[in-house]
Write a structure and sequence with these properties.
membrane; alpha+beta; 223 residues; elongated
Length: 223
Amino acid sequence: MADSLRSQLSNNVRLRVGLALIVATLGTYLTLDQSERVVKKQKEYRRLSVQLAQARQQATDTSWLARSKEAGKVLSELRDKDWTDSNHGLIQSKWNDYLQNLLLQEKAVNATVALSEAFADGATKTKEDEAGAVPGVSIMRAKLRFEALPRTLYRLLQIIDTNKQTMVVDSLTYNWIGTTGRAEMNLKALTHLSGQPGAQGAAGAADSTTDSANAASPAKGQS
């Protein structure tokens, strides 16, 4: 059979040319396929080389220490704005007195302040509270009801916004009744117990002396 094939190839020029074209086409395909594989390998090698170089750079980069200390300092300053005392009862009493005096000072009529019975934990904690939870920090709430003109309401909102100890307006409704308006305002505030380092725990990268001083010094109440 081999002799017959050689005889046909020697006597048939077209068969030789056709066979040569087939071999050439197959060789070209195999060459291109192999070349594409080499290119893919080179790209993968370059990608891994870049990742390795980045990993080596990050391993020797100490700038994150400075960023961590700065973040700790900022967090410590924010924690100083929490409502702080030696126990939750005193914190709520301080907050209640402040809100009562604020409404009296701004001459709000028929004003009442109702504090939540417990801090935001367990069943009373919302998804928002859980998402923003900070170790050692609790959330207290209050509901204010009062009658006041719009300018009085505006002054109250300004005072709440700029108060030294942070307060947040969770919701506000204001209905006009005759010559004045009836407002219902839900407030929220962050608290932590004085002397508890847990409130400063997230600022662990900050200087330990600064952390200890901030944790040991209760925030001053609003006069």
